[in-house]
């Protein structure tokens, strides 16, 4: 198995990965992953979900096949939670049911062909029809079922190779499909081979996918359980519990007790705050909405732990054209260094001034803490442009999750210059502890009451 590390060495196609239960799982967007798979040297591609991880823990042959794969793609909320438990989330959920058609869409644009292999007789043909209806330019080089058509491996490999297909989709279920690919990959001629599970059944209409709102909530597993309770009860009810227990145990072993305690404190306090402050959050949202046009929440890309970007949430305190007007206001900055701050910034709304003065605009970051992007206490979340201009040594502050509060926030906020802020963040990173976090949380209450540096 792989050793636990921040990043695994890149495969030949240079896809970045993150460790999830000792497997290097691809940490990239759909578009970047498709480009790498179609344009690189990767051949075997598997998907990892909670059920796969459970099978991997007990089936050594399957675990070995995953370890030999060129790419393991994250599939579902379970893998995302496991990644977050180890310190940081994944860029995107690359579940096979959505990812594979997107890959085939680009493959069709490039004139590449696909072979569908697996599932019950007739399913691959119906899946091919559905794909060609969705992607008219897609070339389906052939189909073959996984029953009689898969009984003789030599015959199946010969038929696939004879078709001249560039891409092979193998749909036999976990772990059978991965073991089949692992055994036969040296003889297969397609440049890319993916184990796609129930994808052909979904495409053929044998299994109905969850409605879009359910998928958006990342609850597709609950929908499938409701559709097939007898067959899937053990997988989802017992299996998900087993997976979560293994994830927690692995996080506690790999992250160390201090990191686990900090995350538990963050999640517990943020959960309580979210529930207690729900009426306040609602009232502020209404005030922002009625004060000026534009969205209630302000979203902006910031740089998190280990340099990973995330979207920070705040209540909007400026007019919608604030970003466009920034250049003309640079000379009015009240702070030395890279970070712009102006006490009389004309872009700030009436409600926005009150929210900034009381720091209430920061409250939506509670949800960043729940998601694992931020901590309650940590360095100030920096802009990508600031990180790009960091002086030598300043990147050390990225070793910790950014925080809603921290040394900078309780020491004067906007009254503190950029260089001094960096020094404070580095001091926190080098001496962080649960006791220090608790002290800073107490000091934050006083800092908010005084309003010093908040504008």
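Q: What amino acid sequence fits the structure above?
A:
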């Amino acid at each position: 198995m792989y050793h636990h590390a921040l990043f695994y060495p890149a495969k030949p196609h240079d896809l970045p990965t993150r460790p999830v239960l000792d497997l290097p799982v691809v940490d990239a967007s759909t578009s970047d992953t498709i480009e790498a798979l179609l344009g690189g040297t990767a051949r075997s591609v598997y998907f990892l979900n909670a059920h796969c991880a459970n099978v991997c823990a007990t089936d050594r042959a399957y675990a070995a096949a995953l370890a030999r794969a060129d790419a393991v793609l994250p599939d579902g909320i379970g893998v995302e939670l496991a990644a977050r438990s180890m310190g940081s989330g994944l860029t995107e959920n690359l579940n096979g049911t959505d990812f594979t058609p997107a890959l085939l869409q680009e493959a069709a644009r490039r004139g590449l062909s696909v072979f569908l292999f697996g599932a019950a007789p007739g399913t691959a043909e119906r899946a091919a029809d559905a794909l060609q209806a969705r992607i008219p330019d897609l070339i389906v080089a052939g189909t073959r079922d996984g029953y009689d058509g898969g009984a003789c491996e030599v015959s199946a490999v010969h038929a696939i190779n004879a078709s001249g297909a560039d891409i092979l989709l193998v749909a036999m279920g976990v772990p059978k499909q991965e073991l089949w690919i692992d055994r036969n990959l040296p003889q297969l001629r397609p440049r890319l081979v993916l184990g796609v599970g129930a994808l052909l059944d979904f495409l053929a209409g044998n299994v109905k996918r969850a409605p879009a709102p359910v998928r958006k909530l990342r609850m597709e597993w609950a929908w499938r359980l409701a559709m097939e309770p007898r067959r899937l009860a053990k997988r989802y009810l017992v299996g998900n519990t087993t997976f979560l227990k293994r994830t927690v145990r692995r996080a506690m072993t790999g992250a160390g007790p201090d990191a686990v305690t900090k995350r538990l404190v963050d999640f517990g306090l943020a959960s309580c705050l979210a529930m207690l402050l729900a009426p306040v959050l609602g009232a502020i949202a209404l005030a922002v909405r009625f004060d000026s046009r534009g969205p209630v929440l302000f979203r902006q890309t910031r740089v998190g732990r280990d340099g990973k970007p995330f979207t920070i949430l705040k209540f909007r305190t400026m007019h919608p054209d604030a970003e466009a007007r920034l250049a003309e206001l640079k000379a009015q900055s009240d702070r030395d260094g890279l970070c712009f701050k102006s006490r009389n910034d004309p872009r700030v709304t009436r409600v926005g001034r009150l929210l900034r003065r009381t720091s209430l605009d920061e409250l939506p970051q509670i949800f960043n803490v729940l998601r694992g992007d931020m901590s309650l206490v940590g360095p100030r979340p920096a802009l990508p442009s600031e990180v790009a201009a960091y002086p030598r040594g300043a990147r050390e502050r990225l070793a910790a999750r950014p925080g809603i509060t921290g040394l900078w926030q309780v020491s004067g906020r906007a009254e503190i210059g950029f260089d001094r802020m960096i020094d404070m963040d580095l001091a926190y990173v080098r001496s962080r502890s649960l006791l220090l976090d608790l002290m800073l949380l107490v000091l934050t209450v006083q800092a908010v009451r005084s309003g010093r540096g908040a504008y």
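Q: And what stands out in the fold?
A: Residues 17-246 form one domain.
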